[in-house]
Design brief:
Blueprint: H1 5-8, H2 34-39, H3 45-64
Length: about 60
């Protein structure tokens, strides 16, 4: 049985234990939405990667503001 990259490198939670939501329900620590945080445990590896991409984009937008 072949081993995929996702088996070797599972997507880790971006949580940095600064669990505070802003007015838009986005965590000020990891930039995930409350819905993304709640769904993380059940999300597939590809869904987790997509969440990380969206969170990174949000973080960049917030830092530029």
């Amino acid at each position: 049985m072949a081993t995929s990259d996702t088996d070797i490198n599972p997507v880790e939670s971006p949580c940095i234990n600064i669990c505070t939501l802003d007015d838009d329900d986005i965590c000020v620590g990891c930039f995930r939405s409350i819905d993304e945080i709640c769904a993380w445990r059940e999300a597939s590896e590809s869904e987790r990667r997509a969440v990380l991409e969206r969170a990174a984009a949000r973080g960049n937008d917030i830092r530029r503001a």
